[in-house]
Amino acid sequence: MQSELEGHAVEVEQALGGAPQRVGWFRFHFDDQRWEWSEQVQRMHGYEPGTVTPTTELVLEHKHPNDRRAVKKTIDDMLISRRPFSTRHRIVDTHGTVHQVVVVGDQLTDHHGAVIGTQGYYVDITPTPDRAREEMITARVAEITEQRAVIEQAKGMLMLVYGLDEDTAFDLLRWRSQSSNVKLRRLAEILIERFRNARDDAISSRSVFDHALLSDDAAQNGDGAASPVAN
User: Fold this and answer.
1) At residue 212, does pLDDT exceed 80?
2) What superfamily does domain 2-126 belong to in CATH?
3) What is the value of pTM for the model shown?
4) Which residues pair with 34 in a beta bridge?
């Protein structure tokens, strides 16, 4: 039975694209409240394999203080209902490192089919440093892309209205940002809104666009100091 659990743990790890030691099995016997942890689960909690005998008290001791009460309730309910369960919570290992885990348990039965406990898997879903850094970079790239899109739209409007080339249109935007003390992206948003509102009137006169671009009240709608780059 243990080898079957280990085999399933490997399958879960592969399915989740997990790194080694991020998936392990456990078993909990109801009558004597005896726990078994695989080597991987022992390491998740900060122990070298074979150096710890898990108990219900130890299991709860390793739960994050803010999650401990909910996990205890899950264990108490499991002892009464004897049904499968799943939970997502945090554990704190012996080094004080917090791990985010998903624990999934199924019924453990004897050869007569009677439910005598639960068995299942711990899955450590804590973001790795590389993964966290990748997510941060991805979010930042998305933010910069969004900012550039607004600036590009405002620049395109200036090119269309005033017949400017791309570099000159950007220089004009940057100069207006500095002179009005409004961040470049915020200025672009203001100009886009003003240009859209000015379109009908501007059919007969480009001076409406001139006012939209050069009006000093742009600074009143700003959100901080100007910058020559997208902020």
Assistant:
1) no
2) PAS domain (3.30.450.20)
3) 0.53
4) 29
